[in-house]
Amino acid sequence: MKTKGFHHVAIICSDYEKSKHFYVNILGFEVIQETFRSTRNSYKLDLQVGERDAIELFSFPNPPERVSRPEACGLRHLAFEVNDIDATATYLQSQGIAVEPIRLDDLTGKRFTFFRDPDHLPLEVYEQ
Question: b/e map of 86-120 (b: 16 or more CB within 10 Å)?
C-alpha cells in the first residue's frame, strides 16, 4: 500500500459550539463546509488545517467518553507545526488555554508543548 498522506483527522466533540469556537476562532482553522445531518442530529464541520490537511469535527448526541491521556493506548495526540513556539504558547495562554511548559525533543532538537481542546483531547504544537 502506498499513501499520499493523511486525508483528514476526525474528532467527535461533546459541545459542538464550544469546540467549533475553539478550532475556528482560537486555533484559526478555516471552515471548508458545515453540514447538519438531521437523521443523526449531528453536525459535521470540515476544517482546513495548514495548506493541505483537514479535520472533520463531529457532534453526536451523548457520545461515550474515551480515555485521552497521552499515555493511554490508542491515538496519543495531534501535533500541529508552528513557526514560533513562544508566540503560539503566549497566544494560547492569552485565550485562557493552559499550556504545559515548553520542552525540547531530545531526538530532533526541536521545541514543543502540549495543550488540550474543550474535550481534553491532547494537542501538541511543534516548532518548525
Answer: eebbebbeeeebebeeeeeeeeeeebbbbbbbbbe
Q: Which amino acid is at 50?
A: G
pTM to 2 decimal places: 0.89
pLDDT at 63: 83
Every domain of the chain with CATH number 3.10.180.10 lies at 7-64, 65-128
* Cell triple for 117: 481542546
C-beta neighbour count of 20 within 10 angstroms: 20
Q: Are the C-beta atoms of 58 and 44 separated by less than 8 Å?
A: yes
What's the CATH class of domain 7-64? Answer: alpha beta
Average predicted confidence (pLDDT) for the chain: 91
CATH number at 65-128: 3.10.180.10
